[in-house]
Amino acid sequence: MVSEKINEIMNEQINKEFYSGYLYLSMSAHLKELGLFGFASWTKIQAKEEVEHGLKLLDYLLERNSFVTLKQISMPTFEYNGVLSIFNEIYEHEKCITKSVMEIAKLAEDECDRKTLTFIDWFIEEQVEEEQMVKNIIKRLELFGEDKTSLLLMDQELGSRE
After folding, report:
1. What's this model's pTM, rounded to 2 decimal places?
2. Cβ-count burial of 71 within 10 angstroms (0-12 exposed, 13-18 middle, 19+ buried)?
3. Within 10 Å of residue 99's Cβ, how many Cβ atoms?
4. How many domains does the chain have?
5. Which runs of consecutive H residues, i.e. helices, occur in 34-159?
6. pLDDT tens across 130-143, in order?
7. Which of 6, 28, 54, 64 could form a disulfide with 17 if both were Cys (CB 3.0 to 4.6 A apart)?
8. Domain that holds residue 101
9. Nearest to 80 by CA among 114, 42, 44, 33
10. From CA 156, how far away is CA 32, in angstroms rounded?
């Protein structure tokens, strides 16, 4: 069983991961409405990954004979001001998730909970990858500016993500 503090912070992280799924689904719907089906597909796949992360955390708590407390998931709200603004929002969100995961690692370290620390290392690596992937998309969107041909090509490329 994990400590009460770790149980609480892990349950909060489960909620954050499920919220991330909601956030990316709302972005996906908006992008699809714009006719950017590749970007929509990319964000929908990202939503599924975030839900999987939440489930992985949930399973870990259960495996450690700890309690899972599923809380209400907030409604995502943000301004839809084009593809670049959406990906800037994604980047800022991922940085918040990274910070949250790092707080779990710090708490596990402080409590000498090596099992949780080892478990959460996977999430740290995942967050580094996700932040870099989104940052690369942002760099290309900034480079292309308002060029619709480049946006279409990028849309096709992101649509190939499986």
Report:
1. 0.94
2. exposed
3. 10
4. 1
5. 37-63, 83-110, 114-144, 148-159
6. 999 999 999 999 99
7. 54
8. 4-159
9. 33
10. 13
What letter does residue 75 receive in the DSSP assignment?
P
Q: Which two tokens stand for residue 63?
A: 């495996």
The region that residue 161 occupies, defined by phi over 0 for left and psi between -120 and 50 for alpha, beta otherwise, is beta
Q: Please choose, from the candidates 13, 4, 6, the residue with its C-alpha nearest in 3D space to the C-alpha of residue 117.
A: 6
Tokens of 62: 């259960």
CATH of the domain at 106: 1.20.1260.10
Tens of pLDDT along 87-123? 999 999 999 999 999 999 999 999 999 999 999 999 9
CB 134 within 8 A of CB 92: no
The per-residue b/e assignment along 124-153, b for 16 or more CB within 10 angstroms, e otherwise, is eebbeebbebbeebbeebeebeeeeeebee
Residue appearing with tokens 């069983």: 1
Q: Report whether 67 contacts 8 (CB < 8 A).
A: no
